[in-house]
Specification:
Elements lengths: L7 H10 E11 L13 E12 L6 E4 L4 E7 L2 E3 L1 H4 L4 E4 L5 E11 L6 E6 L6 E6 L21 E6 L5 E4 L3 E4 L2 E4 L12 E4 L2 E10 L5 E10 L9 H19 L8 E6 L6 E2 L4 E5 L10 H17 L7 E2 L6 H18 L5 H17 L14 H6 L4 H17 L1 H15 L3 E2 L1 H12 L3 H8 L7 E8 L5 E9 L10 E10 L5 E11 L3 E3 L11 E4 L8 E2 L3 H10 L6 H16 L5 H11 L6 H18 L5 H18 L5 H13 L3 H12 L11 H13 L5 H10 L3 H13 L3 H13 L5 H11 L5 H4 L2 H15 L2 H10 L8 H13 L5 H28 L1
Parallel strand pairs: 1-10, 16-17, 17-19, 20-21, 22-28
Antiparallel strand pairs: 1-2, 2-7, 3-6, 4-5, 4-7, 8-9, 9-14, 10-13, 11-14, 12-13, 15-16, 18-19, 22-23, 23-26, 24-25, 24-27
Amino acid sequence: MPGENLSRDEAQERAALLSVDGYEVFLDLRSAIGESDQEPRTFRSVTTLRFRCADPGATSFADLIAPSVTALSLNGRDLDPSEVFDGTRITLEDLAAENELVVDAQCAYSRTGEGMHRFVDPEDGEVYLYTQYEPADSRRVFANFEQPDLKAPFRFEVQAPEGWTVWSNGTGELADGVWKFAETKPISTYITAVVAGPYHYVTDSYSRTFDDGTTLDIPLGAMCRKGLAKHFDADDVFLVTKQGLDFFHDNFDYPYPFGKYDQAFVPEYNLGAMENPGLVTFREEFIFRGKVTQASYERRANVILHEMAHMWFGDLVTMRWWDDLWLKESFADFMGAFSMVEATRFTNGWITFANNRKAWAYRADQLPSTHPVTADIRDLEDAKLNFDGITYAKGASVLKQLVAYAGRDAFLEGARRYFKRHAYGNTRLGDLLSVLEETSGRDMASWSQSWLQTAGVNSLTPQVILNAEGRITELSVLQEAAESHPELRPHRVAVGLYRRTPEGELTRYARAELDVEGPRTVVSELAGEQAPDLVLVNDDDLTYCKIRFDENSLDTLRAHLGDITDPLARALCWSALWNLTRDALMPARDFIGLVLRFAGRESDIGVLQMLHTWADSALTFYAAPEWREEGGRALAEGALRELRIAEPGSQNQLTWARFFAAVASSAADLQLLQGLLEGTAKIDGLDVDQELRWSFLGPLAAHGVADERVLAAELVRDDTASGKRHQVRCLAARPSEAVKAQAWASVVESDSLSNALAGATISGFAQSSQRELTAPYTSRYFEAIERVWAERSIQIGMDVVRGLFPHHQDDQGTLDATDRWLAAHEDAAPALRRLVLEARDDLARSLRAQGCDAAAAS
């Protein structure tokens, strides 16, 4: 990725010098269809950029990543592209006070999901285009100043193949063969968007009358590929959209500012979604081709609302530089859950947040690459990697803590003032803190220092002293921090006391809410209460911490975890037990035993799915190698038992079926999967639809039961884009030296695969049951990654470096090989080193956990 980076210092220097009045962008996309021998396939992009310079005569630059530039002019003066364009930047010398830059370029269509992505649908041969820019890929489509604080209005015109429809941020119409779009409000380059092709498009509308009598009418649209139209439940998408718009209008006191609201579900998408104002883009996997659980619908609703929150946090008011990425992502992550719980049918969303999203944050916050929520982002490569569990889930957790600390009303009033004060502008941390201090009366500077400007996660452990009568004499909360990040934070927490009832239920009988500060805090409110069976610190999930247990509470959970009646409390306990396992404080086999004993009683389907993921990870990475075979048999037997007793046709049955497939390895298990596929075996109520068929074929391929012929036949049955991805994954999973060699070459030695098919190949390559087969690739991995990072786009580079790290070669030799590479490549790109350091940390954690698990057997 040489020459494509942009440093914070360069961006600050350019922002001090330039201000942008507007863009006019013309794109000719007719080259998207038809045969072409041209490599890469390109389209014409003409940009007229008007801007001012605070220091006439100065030199600056515009951004453009393109194969070629046909013509360039600055203030009417023609420039020689060969002299001023180096493939990534256009040098602009002798600037006037007011300037007009015109760039006529040939830009390349993308196959990596960056810039203007071009997808050919294997089902019908139709071509679909869409753009994806965050953090800095709009320069692959038009010339610009690619940084978030140089906002401007944009006016797009697009010439497309006949019969296509084109969408952009503003409303558009077809005139004289060209799609012309209304000028946008001032927005950043990375949230401009174009979607073009023969998409299936559904419309609706939203109307809101405000207290002052004014009415806001918002045209709604939703689109997907024609091949997915039969699966597209647009009515539910619109329902959540309208509920979200109502919620944000009720609470933000700032009408949606961007006119229409289109939502495009697009193929081969790298992200979950992107908040382009007026034209939000989503990965098309949110259109469900088969039966899914309510957890999938909840996840989609959360993402819809997350992106909608960005219309205010991120689009209307935007961070100045990527250091303050949290100003949009943390808020959107929090507001997505907040609005979903209060405005939609998914009222248990905080359970998913506590059990799923925060697990992502806890992992990220214990990596060597952990960083404060407000990060030090030196350049664009740093920015790309900081779309992580800290910026999203920890930031959202911190905001949840802030609401408990400052109060809901003060928090929302602060947001309202923030929007009105900084509309269409750019902000930094202090801008938000100042309004929150106004509305809450709290000292935001010290709160920010502890929560936003330091890294690491604290652990909270209860300590209980009882008297002779069995009542609490003293209950304290002990706070600890890692040596590497010793900050002890102020926590607003609830401490819950639980006892077993005569009916055998484990219920809360006392609760205290308090501020925990320093290494030890006494919970005086609970003195004199009856002795608890379980003490749950951070009951109701008010703060961000790792929950620990006293010995009595841990014994209670081992025996009675499934008896906890409150689903959020139960989810918090599961999460805490998983953290104990990851931290090598609980043997992996003990955690797996708890899942086998109690997961079948779990009422929240999202928690159940998370437990399955954790149990599989515990077996694969944290269990002692000599116990894996026994543990795998136990998991498969338990999964099959729960599958057979689950209510026919229920989402629990579907969830256990998928988990059984994930852990199946014995001849009998594989024979059952094959029988379910062929119809010779049956489980009452289990509908083996196309997506479930691929779930079953994955393990059959990995264990050598489903060969290339079987997989080819399945693709004929499901000759779609989704089917092709599944087939490619299964093909790469087969247990053969030749298969692994071919998969490796197709990803590492070639760039012919699209991002989606490269990802599918990577996913299939490394199987936990094939450790010996993939062992030779450890040395090849370390020989290749620096070259891959230099030659490929950052997205593909990240996919390869993360996905092909030899995680399954979990022994000291692999750890030593990783350390040797790090020692020998101290000058490698910082972002590349970060990825390797993170993988090394995961590997070291696995080895520690395996040691803990082995010790449990001795």
